[in-house]
Amino acid sequence: MTDRSRSEHSPQPLRFERPSALAFLGYALALALVLWSLQGADFSVDRLL
User: Fold this and answer.
1) Can you give the pLDDT of all 49 residues of the chain as single tens digits?
2) Tell me, what's the pLDDT at 12?
3) Do residues 19 and 27 lie in contact, with contact meaning Cβ atoms separated by under 8 Å?
4) Where are the domains positioned within the chain?
5) C-alpha span between 30 and 36 (Å, rounded)
6) I need a labelling partner for 14 at 20 to 30 A (CA). Which of 29, 36, 45, 49 fits?
């Protein structure tokens, strides 16, 4: 039996693998960079709303 035929009859959705700690740190640093850039550009959510 192949994984494909088994997944077609599986009632549960396929799951993604857990990201490594290094990947998590990369995502966290990217988010921090975006937020820092928005703050440096004087972006305000209050003005947006």
Assistant:
1) 555 555 566 677 777 778 799 999 999 999 999 989 988 888 777 776 6
2) 72
3) yes
4) 19-49
5) 10
6) 29
Q: Residues 33, 21, 7, 3: is their CA dihedral positive or negative?
A: positive
Note whether 32 and 39 are within 8 A (CB): no
What 3-state class would DSSP assign to 47?
Answer: helix
Residues 6+ apart with CB under 8 A from 27: 19
Token digits of residue 37: 């850039």
**Per-residue pLDDT, 3:** 55
For 15, the enclosing helix (H) or strand (E) is: none
